[in-house]
Amino acid sequence: MTTAFSRRAFIGGTAAAGAAALLASQPGAAFGLGAIPATAPLALGNLTSGGFIANLPPSFYSRPGLEGMPVIDYESMPVVNIMDHGAVGDGVTSDKAAFDSAISAINALGGGVIYLPIGRYVFTPPSGGSPNWWYQATISGVHFVGEGEGSVVVFRRPKMVTNGQEAPAYASGNGWQFVNATDVSLRDFAIEWLPLNMLRHSTTATALLVRTPESVQVLRMSIGNCQPGVLLQHASNCWMVDNVLRNGASDAYNFGGAKNSVAAYNWAESIGDDGFANYQDSALFPDSNTIPNVRFTRNTVISACYGRGMTLGGSHHIIDENWIENSAGAAILSDISTTSPATLIDASVVNNVCIRSTMEMRPDNRHLSSGGGYHGAIAFLNKVDTLTVQNNSVRGSEDNDIAIGITNWLGVTGNDIEIFGNELYAADGVGINIPSNSTLTGLDISQNRILENTGPSVALAGTATGVTSGGNYVTTLPSVTGSVSGDMTGFTTSLSTPYSDPYAPRRAEPSETSWADPQPQSTSGLTTVNVTSYGALGNGVHDDTPAFRAALAALPATGGVIAVPAGNFLLQVDPAYSTFRDTKITHHFAITERDNVHIVGVGASSVIVCASAEDQGVRIIGGQGCSVSNIAFSLPDRPDFRRNRALLEITGAKDVSVTDVSLSGASGSNLLIDTCTGVYLDNVTSENANMYGIDVEGSRQVRVTGCSANDNRDGGIQIGWVGAVFREAQFVHVDANTVDGSSEGAGILASSGADLLIDGNSVSNTCQAGIYLWGRAPEYPMYSADITNNTIVNACIGDYTYTPGAIAIHSIRESAGMTTGTFTISGNTIDTTPFSGIWVGGKSPIGSMLCQMNTLTISGNTYSGVGGSSVLIAADQQAKITNLTII
């Protein structure tokens, strides 16, 4: 390693004088310690006028997949109100003592309900090094019931106070840990950790951990900001139904060696590992027949950005009727420990939809080692005894559709495998892959549609005996290079092309090699239609969505302008028009796969008002040459819980622009640019978003200039890779923008990028770093970035800050220790931060994963009012940087 230092740089040095006073003076209440939001959700009415808790209706239990679910008779139980035991519920005061008192009271009654009315019930960090924010060694006959999302249990991390050196990691956190739990339920409330942390390899922040659960039910819960979510380890007779989990850095729902348990009708979105896991530890469960009858049914997984959609193990595990959209690894994977593995017995994978799976296999994923990955949207490994893969629809897999064995890793030794009636469309690979390391006895491949794949319909390189086939329609006939006995003649070629991937153009694009300087789109000379000509009133009360649809339909095929005059144009969600193929995320109004269509207002007085926090607002999907300009967007009632929904989303498009637009109050990010190429954003004003002001995911050739992103929750401007297609961000320029205020996040932050430029921005008053490069997960790592000529004032000042530097770089990693990335931090002005000016690491409150870099150059920066050292890079981190220069 070559290292150059100037006298000004002080690596790991002593804090500057006055740092302690600066830390103590920060206005913490302005950075995430607030009470109940102004627009609190209404109570569900679970507590009746008679003082008991209403039962769930019969319709809850009568749905398909819930057959045999035990009915909990809440109405017969005594009720203990948490407020009667001293709970404050103000989002600031610790309520742990009230929960201790309430559970003592309910135990004295022989069990019953602990009731959580509307409020935010805080659990502060435990003392004495305990990892548990609330701990019960044995809990039985206790049922926690709230009033919906307005009843929130909050687990709060400690404030980072260490200065002038790397801050110690948070303790591994279990929100609620129950060791032995019998006849327990959680129903109708929310759980979240503060602050939001989406770093996969970080200190844990589990929402609920039950070590030995028996007859535990988790029902209609809202869970966010966790790592991982709900863990019912070795569950027996347990049910998870109707829960929603968003923004988890690890698994969402985990049974792990379970038996006789069901997860049904749940939602998992934006997660860092598996959506639904049933990992089998062969050392604990060598006989799979001891852990039978787990079922994952009718669940939704969207964006499993490092793990898999669902994993299965044990015996008689059924995965059926699920929707799995965007997964880095396999959508469905058998997951049994690979040392002395047990046998997967009589598993069924039936009637699932798997969209854009194995996204880790893209060539622009620098983390992926040669030959790595799961090589299948539905994949199995090791020992298999009786397997049914039937009537699944697998669309747009980045690699093979079905893998019976993992190429270059672990094959399958198995018998009685049926692959029947599946739709396998448009994989960038083989339809059904049986690699050379697999040996099968009894294989049936029948009635499948294997169309538009780039490889053979079937690649059979292993050994298979007792093969039968018939009724398969394929684009390409099978390739058989292994040892096969039986019938492999049941394949007929077809010219049918039933599948249209809306993201195919963006997926096929090669990596960018030079800056293309995107420009605003022109509307000159285009046909113009006014929404008021089609019935829009703009009075903020009338549903103007039909008028927007009619105006769009009136445009010629060549495109045109949808004109929006002054007024408040209310958009409602109509289920008949709110969906688009291959996504479960719905919208108010969409322009789908149209070229040269433009939404143009007359300025800030033209306001599109979105009625629903649960849906995207206006959505432009696919197409080329579209724009939005001179208009405003708003969501009047921003929820407290993050929804991941944007007011304006542009996805899968090329050559688009957003100019002179203001956005406020989204339930997720205000403006989402998703999997686009050639984007120009100028004079966009974005404020009060529940996540990021401007979020650019998986996009290339993007310029964000002259924009203001103020007072957004998780950050002003975010650059990432987790879009509808996971892909490396390339040539994104963020210049001459203003970010003022971020209550829980950073100013400008990026988790992916090659040739990223952050230049000439003004960033102030941020909870985390003013500029923050971070590694969300090992996939699509940050590769090269220049952070130049920015002014950062008053950074890292929130009570929840975990970045000990006004410019921070954390957990940037390449595969297998390779260090090829290049980073420059130069010409920046850093003014007033309680911690260091620039930090690269390494050890921090949220994790200790070191950055791996080839070249890091820090030069020509100025520092004033810095509480720590000017530059903080610990010795172990320095060793991971091949060429480090500090001037």
From TrEMBL:
Organism of origin: Herbiconiux ginsengi
Domain Right handed beta helix: residue ranges: 649-844
Stretches with biased composition (Polar residues): 511-526
Chain positions covered by the region annotation Disordered: 495-526
Cellular localisation: Secreted
Lineage, opening ranks: Bacteria, Bacillati, Actinomycetota, Actinomycetes, Micrococcales
Keyword Secreted annotated: yes
GO cellular component: extracellular region
Domain Rhamnogalacturonase A/B/Epimerase-like pectate lyase: 80-275
Chief place where the protein resides: secreted
A Pfam family this chain is assigned to: Beta_helix
Protein name: Right handed beta helix region
